[in-house]
Amino acid sequence: MKGIFREYERQRERMIAKAKELNPNVEMPLDEHGQEVYVIYRRRGRLKAYSKSGIDCIVARVAKRAGIARTITNHTLRRTGARIAYFAGVMLVEIMEGLGHTSEKETIRYLGLTVNELSRAQAKVHSYLQRIKARMTDEAPVEPSGTARISG
After folding, report:
1. Total structural domains in the chain?
2. CB 111, CB 82: distance < 8 Å
3. Environment class of 129 (CB within 10 Å of its CB; exposed 0-12, middle 13-18, buried 19+)
4. Cys staple from 126: which of 77, 93, 137, 144, with CB 3.0 to 4.6 Å?
5. Domain limits at 53?
């Protein structure tokens, strides 16, 4: 994966250099927050940002080449990346901030976590708290009952 990003970085730098060669006053496209857009293309000496539908077309072509039959969009990749981060142990608040969400509840809905996945997470929290309690009281930790501890 790093190799793909490195190759894109090299390609992006070549695009920028060629655009500046054709037009020394060329400007980088900016997003709605005034930040440079990462995914760009060059046309007639100008640099442009891909639209969301343009990126969706690229993602769809790559998915088709990879033999993926279902519809894949940039949003699919964004959500998948967030789920991978969650299961890799990234804190929910960090995922929330990365996605630009304003609440953890919104992020949980966005991740599409199942009751079983949330139960496993809560079992880990329970186990962690039991270990802390055991260290504080020299008691053996109590294992969770296995019942879901999710509020409706």
Report:
1. 1
2. yes
3. exposed
4. 144
5. 2-88
